[in-house]
Amino acid sequence: LVSATRSPEDEGLHPLGIDGLCAAAMAGHIDSRRTLSRSTDDPAAEVRRRLIRCIADSPELAKVSTPVAARLVRDVDGVVRVEAARILASATGRGKTPGGVGEALVTLVGDPDREVRFIALRALSTLGADAPAEAAADAERDFGHHLPVRWRATMSGFEIMVRLHMRTVPDLLRITTEW
Protein backbone atom coordinates (compact mmCIF):
# COMPACT_ATOMS: atom_id res chain seq x y z
CA LEU A 1 0.00 0.00 0.00
CA VAL A 2 2.81 2.38 0.84
CA SER A 3 4.45 1.84 -2.54
CA ALA A 4 1.09 2.39 -4.26
CA THR A 5 0.81 5.84 -2.66
CA ARG A 6 4.37 6.81 -3.69
CA SER A 7 4.87 5.05 -7.03
CA PRO A 8 6.27 7.48 -9.60
CA GLU A 9 5.58 5.00 -12.42
CA ASP A 10 1.81 4.90 -12.03
CA GLU A 11 0.21 7.85 -10.27
CA GLY A 12 -3.19 6.25 -10.87
CA LEU A 13 -2.38 3.91 -7.98
CA HIS A 14 -2.09 6.76 -5.48
CA PRO A 15 -5.85 7.08 -4.75
CA LEU A 16 -6.15 3.31 -4.37
CA GLY A 17 -3.17 3.28 -2.04
CA ILE A 18 -4.74 6.00 0.13
CA ASP A 19 -8.01 4.05 0.31
CA GLY A 20 -6.12 0.93 1.36
CA LEU A 21 -4.07 2.81 3.95
CA CYS A 22 -7.24 4.36 5.30
CA ALA A 23 -8.85 0.96 5.76
CA ALA A 24 -5.72 -0.42 7.39
CA ALA A 25 -5.41 2.60 9.69
CA MET A 26 -9.04 2.28 10.77
CA ALA A 27 -8.35 -1.36 11.56
CA GLY A 28 -5.59 -0.22 13.91
CA HIS A 29 -2.43 -0.61 11.84
CA ILE A 30 -0.01 1.98 13.30
CA ASP A 31 2.33 2.22 10.30
CA SER A 32 -0.64 2.95 8.05
CA ARG A 33 -1.59 5.89 10.27
CA ARG A 34 1.94 7.28 10.01
CA THR A 35 1.98 6.87 6.24
CA LEU A 36 -1.42 8.56 5.94
CA SER A 37 -0.17 11.52 7.91
CA ARG A 38 2.77 11.87 5.50
CA SER A 39 0.59 11.77 2.37
CA THR A 40 -0.46 15.43 2.40
CA ASP A 41 2.05 16.43 -0.27
CA ASP A 42 0.70 14.30 -3.12
CA PRO A 43 0.33 16.44 -6.26
CA ALA A 44 -3.06 14.93 -7.15
CA ALA A 45 -6.05 16.73 -5.64
CA GLU A 46 -8.06 13.49 -5.70
CA VAL A 47 -5.52 11.83 -3.40
CA ARG A 48 -5.61 14.73 -0.92
CA ARG A 49 -9.43 14.72 -1.05
CA ARG A 50 -9.56 11.01 -0.27
CA LEU A 51 -7.04 11.48 2.52
CA ILE A 52 -8.93 14.32 4.20
CA ARG A 53 -12.30 12.54 3.83
CA CYS A 54 -10.80 9.40 5.34
CA ILE A 55 -9.56 11.15 8.45
CA ALA A 56 -12.66 13.34 8.73
CA ASP A 57 -15.00 10.35 8.64
CA SER A 58 -13.02 8.10 10.98
CA PRO A 59 -13.11 8.68 14.73
CA GLU A 60 -10.44 5.99 14.99
CA LEU A 61 -8.03 8.38 13.27
CA ALA A 62 -8.57 11.33 15.61
CA LYS A 63 -4.90 11.38 16.64
CA VAL A 64 -3.70 11.99 13.09
CA SER A 65 -6.64 14.08 11.89
CA THR A 66 -5.63 17.37 13.49
CA PRO A 67 -1.99 17.43 12.32
CA VAL A 68 -3.01 16.35 8.81
CA ALA A 69 -5.71 19.03 8.64
CA ALA A 70 -3.25 21.67 9.89
CA ARG A 71 -0.86 20.76 7.06
CA LEU A 72 -3.65 21.05 4.48
CA VAL A 73 -4.95 24.55 5.36
CA ARG A 74 -3.04 26.06 2.42
CA ASP A 75 -4.05 23.38 -0.09
CA VAL A 76 -4.99 24.68 -3.54
CA ASP A 77 -8.17 22.59 -3.56
CA GLY A 78 -11.18 24.21 -1.86
CA VAL A 79 -12.80 20.88 -0.95
CA VAL A 80 -9.68 19.90 0.98
CA ARG A 81 -9.58 23.25 2.82
CA VAL A 82 -13.26 22.99 3.82
CA GLU A 83 -12.70 19.53 5.30
CA ALA A 84 -9.51 20.69 7.01
CA ALA A 85 -11.43 23.61 8.56
CA ARG A 86 -14.13 21.25 9.82
CA ILE A 87 -11.59 18.89 11.38
CA LEU A 88 -9.78 21.75 13.08
CA ALA A 89 -13.08 23.23 14.28
CA SER A 90 -14.10 19.91 15.79
CA ALA A 91 -10.76 19.79 17.64
CA THR A 92 -11.66 23.02 19.45
CA GLY A 93 -14.65 21.46 21.18
CA ARG A 94 -12.87 18.50 22.78
CA GLY A 95 -11.41 19.99 25.94
CA LYS A 96 -7.77 21.04 25.62
CA THR A 97 -7.12 22.19 22.08
CA PRO A 98 -4.12 20.51 20.41
CA GLY A 99 -1.14 22.72 19.61
CA GLY A 100 -1.14 24.45 16.26
CA VAL A 101 -4.94 24.38 15.84
CA GLY A 102 -5.41 28.06 16.66
CA GLU A 103 -2.67 29.13 14.28
CA ALA A 104 -4.07 26.93 11.51
CA LEU A 105 -7.54 28.41 12.04
CA VAL A 106 -6.10 31.92 11.88
CA THR A 107 -4.61 31.00 8.49
CA LEU A 108 -8.06 29.87 7.32
CA VAL A 109 -9.66 33.19 8.30
CA GLY A 110 -7.98 34.69 5.23
CA ASP A 111 -9.19 31.93 2.89
CA PRO A 112 -10.91 33.03 -0.33
CA ASP A 113 -13.76 30.54 0.28
CA ARG A 114 -16.52 32.01 2.47
CA GLU A 115 -17.45 28.64 3.97
CA VAL A 116 -13.87 28.03 5.07
CA ARG A 117 -13.66 31.51 6.62
CA PHE A 118 -16.93 31.06 8.46
CA ILE A 119 -15.95 27.65 9.89
CA ALA A 120 -12.61 29.06 11.03
CA LEU A 121 -14.18 32.14 12.60
CA ARG A 122 -16.75 30.13 14.51
CA ALA A 123 -14.08 27.75 15.77
CA LEU A 124 -11.81 30.60 16.85
CA SER A 125 -14.66 32.20 18.76
CA THR A 126 -14.94 29.04 20.90
CA LEU A 127 -11.27 29.02 21.89
CA GLY A 128 -11.55 31.89 24.36
CA ALA A 129 -8.27 32.27 26.25
CA ASP A 130 -6.66 29.56 24.08
CA ALA A 131 -7.06 31.68 20.94
CA PRO A 132 -3.81 33.04 19.50
CA ALA A 133 -3.24 36.51 20.97
CA GLU A 134 -2.24 38.11 17.69
CA ALA A 135 -5.50 36.98 16.07
CA ALA A 136 -7.66 38.76 18.65
CA ALA A 137 -5.62 41.93 18.24
CA ASP A 138 -5.95 41.71 14.45
CA ALA A 139 -9.71 41.21 14.75
CA GLU A 140 -10.14 44.27 16.94
CA ARG A 141 -7.89 46.35 14.67
CA ASP A 142 -9.54 45.22 11.44
CA PHE A 143 -13.17 44.93 12.45
CA GLY A 144 -13.77 46.66 15.77
CA HIS A 145 -14.46 50.10 14.28
CA HIS A 146 -17.41 48.71 12.29
CA LEU A 147 -19.56 48.16 15.36
CA PRO A 148 -20.98 50.58 17.91
CA VAL A 149 -18.85 51.02 21.02
CA ARG A 150 -21.41 49.35 23.29
CA TRP A 151 -21.21 46.18 21.18
CA ARG A 152 -17.42 46.21 21.13
CA ALA A 153 -17.34 46.37 24.90
CA THR A 154 -19.30 43.12 25.21
CA MET A 155 -17.84 41.11 22.35
CA SER A 156 -14.50 39.41 21.79
CA GLY A 157 -12.57 40.17 18.64
CA PHE A 158 -13.57 36.83 17.19
CA GLU A 159 -17.25 37.44 17.82
CA ILE A 160 -16.88 40.72 15.92
CA MET A 161 -15.23 38.88 13.03
CA VAL A 162 -17.93 36.21 12.97
CA ARG A 163 -20.72 38.77 12.95
CA LEU A 164 -19.14 40.88 10.21
CA HIS A 165 -18.45 37.91 7.94
CA MET A 166 -22.11 36.88 7.92
CA ARG A 167 -23.54 38.65 4.92
CA THR A 168 -26.82 36.89 4.14
CA VAL A 169 -30.16 38.46 5.05
CA PRO A 170 -31.25 35.59 7.38
CA ASP A 171 -27.93 35.85 9.24
CA LEU A 172 -28.26 39.61 9.60
CA LEU A 173 -31.87 39.31 10.79
CA ARG A 174 -30.91 36.70 13.35
CA ILE A 175 -28.06 38.88 14.62
CA THR A 176 -30.26 41.93 14.99
CA THR A 177 -32.81 39.96 17.00
CA GLU A 178 -30.04 38.76 19.33
CA TRP A 179 -29.17 42.35 20.23
Question: Layout of helices and strands, plus pairs?
Answer:
Layout: H1 2-6, H2 13-26, H3 30-37, H4 45-56, H5 62-71, H6 78-91, H7 101-109, H8 114-127, H9 133-143, H10 149-154, H11 157-165, H12 169-178
Brief description of this entry?
The protein is mostly helical and 179 residues long. It contains twelve helices and no strands.
Describe the structure.
Helix 2 packs parallel to helix 4 (45-56), helix 3 packs parallel to helix 5 (62-71) and helix 7 runs antiparallel to helix 8. Helices cover 68% and strands 0% of the residues. With 179 residues, the protein is mainly alpha-helical. The radius of gyration is 19 Å and the shape is globular. The relative contact order is 0.08.
List key phrases describing it.
179 residues, mainly alpha, disordered C terminus
Radius of gyration: 19 Å
* Percentage beta strand: under 5%
Q: Largest beta sheet, briefly?
A: none
Between the first and last Cα atoms, what is the distance in angstroms?
55 Å
Low-confidence stretches: 145-155, 166-179
Derived from helix and strand composition plus strand pairing, the structural class reads mainly alpha
Number of strands: 0
Number of helices: 12
